[in-house]
Design brief:
The protein is an alpha+beta fold and 166 residues long. The protein contains four helices and twelve strands, in the order H-E-E-E-E-E-H-E-H-E-E-E-E-E-E-H. Strands 3-2-6-9-10-5-4 form a seven-stranded antiparallel sheet. Strand 4 and strand 5 form a beta hairpin. The longest helix is centred in the first third of the chain and has 10 residues. The chain starts with 8 loop residues before the first helix and ends with a helix.
């Protein structure tokens, strides 16, 4: 076989997932005081349609972690190639993520960004802590469908579009 063995499991995990392209989404919610908070995620996935469930992962050291543990609802935004700056902004300094006038209050008072391909409004069902991370399971209660366009993906530690890797 044409594989090189990597015996260090941490290095193996990093190498494998750098080769695995992931869709990029942003997760938004409200802090207890009503302020918007959010982050960029590459771990969002569907768990099934009956009932409509999705999940995403988050580090327990993330700036949104304490707010997420107390929240009832989140909005999951799927991104297109036109949203690369939005993905970068929600992955950068948490104090600057909602300073611009590019979002509004949506269903359940959730912060919703304009110009994304879609938004799932979700109720948090379960949070499973695992080491210094967590898996968040959500139930979809509403969907806002925008324009279909080439998706934004994360591959080899950078944002790309499907045309970049074809």
């Amino acid at each position: 076989m044409g594989f090189a063995a990597e015996t260090n499991p941490v290095d193996a995990l990093k190498m494998v997932f750098r080769r695995h392209a992931s869709g990029v989404s942003i997760i938004t919610l409200n802090a207890e005081n009503g302020d918007p908070v959010g982050f960029t995620a590459t771990s969002m996935t569907s768990l099934g349609a009956t009932p409509p469930l999705a999940s995403f992962n988050v580090a327990s050291g993330a700036s949104t972690w304490a707010h997420l543990c107390k929240a009832k609802y989140v909005a999951i935004h799927t991104l297109t190639e036109a949203n690369i700056q939005l993905a970068q902004k929600l992955a950068a300094d948490h104090t600057k993520r909602f300073l611009d006038d590019d979002w509004k209050s949506g269903p359940n008072g959730l912060p919703i960004f304009e110009g994304v391909s879609s938004v799932l409004i979700c109720r948090i069902r379960e949070i499973h802590s695992v080491e210094s991370n967590a898996v968040v399971v959500v139930e979809v209660i509403e969907g806002l469908v925008g324009v279909e366009a080439n998706p934004l993906i994360y591959h080899q530690r950078t944002y790309k579009t499907t045309t970049d890797i074809v």
